């Protein structure tokens, strides 16, 4: 087992799926790089898979930046007052202060990577 805060290599199968607060209907994530899994101090790196109709509620981050990279499936993403279809190979950048939400409106799982930095909102 790797010491937290040290360099590490982990396999995705080592981290359990979990449903974080504000995520509903089978919106599951694996916290692959996170203070609790690796001891990271600046990054939260997750893979998420949302079943059809699953979603994260609309929310905003005061100081955090986020990147969503859609790996498979399709859904709808709210960014501010705009709603857009997102699908495989879309990369979404969200600066601080941007209200956003994502939901799976497709027929199969919506799978994506989420990178957040810094770890906490101010």
From TrEMBL:
Gene3D superfamilies: Jelly Rolls
Domain Cupin type-2: residue ranges: 48-115
Organism, as annotated: Roseibium aestuarii
Lineage: Bacteria, Pseudomonadati, Pseudomonadota, Alphaproteobacteria, Hyphomicrobiales
Keywords: Metal-binding
Pfam family, one: Cupin_2
Protein name: Cupin domain-containing protein
InterPro entries in UniProt: Cupin_2, GPI/OXD, RmlC-like_jellyroll, RmlC_Cupin_sf
């Amino acid at each position: 087992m790797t010491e937290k805060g040290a360099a590490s290599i982990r396999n995705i199968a080592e981290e359990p799926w979990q449903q974080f607060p504000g995520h509903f209907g089978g919106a599951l994530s694996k916290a692959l790089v996170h203070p609790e899994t690796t001891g990271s101090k600046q990054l939260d790196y997750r893979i998420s898979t949302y079943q059809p109709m699953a979603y994260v509620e609309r929310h905003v981050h005061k100081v955090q930046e986020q990147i969503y990279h859609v790996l498979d499936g399709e859904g709808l993403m709210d960014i501010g007052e705009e709603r857009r279809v997102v699908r495989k190979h879309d990369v979404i950048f969200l600066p601080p202060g941007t209200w956003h939400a994502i939901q799976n409106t497709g027929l199969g799982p919506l799978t994506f990577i989420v990178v957040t930095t810094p770890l906490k909102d101010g």
